[in-house]
TrEMBL record:
<keyword id="KW-1133">Transmembrane helix</keyword>
<feature type="transmembrane region" description="Helical">
    <location>
        <begin position="138"/>
        <end position="168"/>
    </location>
</feature>
<protein>
    <recommendedName>
        <fullName>DUF835 domain-containing protein</fullName>
    </recommendedName>
</protein>
<dbReference type="InterPro" id="IPR008553">
    <property type="entry name" value="DUF835"/>
</dbReference>
<feature type="transmembrane region" description="Helical">
    <location>
        <begin position="84"/>
        <end position="101"/>
    </location>
</feature>
<feature type="transmembrane region" description="Helical">
    <location>
        <begin position="107"/>
        <end position="126"/>
    </location>
</feature>
<dbReference type="Pfam" id="PF05763">
    <property type="entry name" value="DUF835"/>
</dbReference>
<feature type="transmembrane region" description="Helical">
    <location>
        <begin position="6"/>
        <end position="23"/>
    </location>
</feature>
<keyword id="KW-0812">Transmembrane</keyword>
<feature type="transmembrane region" description="Helical">
    <location>
        <begin position="52"/>
        <end position="72"/>
    </location>
</feature>
<feature type="domain" description="DUF835">
    <location>
        <begin position="213"/>
        <end position="320"/>
    </location>
</feature>
<keyword id="KW-0472">Membrane</keyword>
<feature type="transmembrane region" description="Helical">
    <location>
        <begin position="30"/>
        <end position="46"/>
    </location>
</feature>
Amino acid sequence: MNYLDLFLGVALLVSYVLLFYNHHLTGRKALLYYSLAWLSLAVPVFSSDRGVYIVGLAFFSAFLWAGNVEAIDELTLNNETARSLLYLSILPVLIVFLFYPEHETSAYALLGLWIVLSALLLGFYGGRTLLPMSALQAFLGVVVALSGLIPFFRLRIVPAFLGVVLAFESVRTFLRTSFVGDFSIGSIKDVGLDEKPGLVLVPSAPEDVLSSALVFSRSPRNAPNWFWITTVHDERAISPTNLPKILDMAVKFMREAGEAGKKPIIVIDGLDYLVLENGFPSVLKFLSALRDYALVHGATVFIVGSDDFLSERERKLLRSIVGEGNA
């Protein structure tokens, strides 16, 4: 192994670590799949075995497809559609199983075409934000497809180099961009809120707080900072099971409000609904992460609802996150 191979392999592993760590922080499934894709591409770089190389490409293609589907789900697709498309991620592995090594050229061509198809899916549904990732994926797919015909492209360094470029574009996109609807920092008013930073469990939120907060509610309203928690497909709707997106939006709102010199206030309505759709452990993890970010950014997060529907053990766990004085 030469130094260039070592550098590219380490770069891919660094991409894996960055994406997986961000998945750990936010719970985004897309980041988990992308991180596994770069890990799958990194392993063959450290091996001279061509069988290991093409198997790594197959798993890379599979996880890339899954990551694209999950990324799109944050924008447009409903959960049922996304789940259906995720099942197709097994196809690249089946391609290698069926065609390699007897039909090596066909295996490379089909893997490349699958990566191109995955890129087209991302570009068509992902919007302008994901277009650079889509273009790089398509270019990589063409290179992989030509690997079976042109010996130069069979060199591991070519797809590995493109993989590194794509990996860091993915890191840049996901770590610096929040997949959210538009909200207006300028519309935030100073309501003289005396609540300490962190989570507050309340039966209802005052209207003056609602008008100055980023609101996630079970009821729709035509307001710049209001998002509807529902399974209905709507421009300003968020699925109740998409807790990572709610967290992502909330953190960006906290950051931008703080930079504008305003106190970040967030309202999340329907605690019982979120628990029903996600299960208590997932909601508790979500609230724990939300509390940590709120403390960092000096934000107050109102959780609207009652904990009466929870068991005694669950209420104690919830109050350990919220704090006895805020429940």
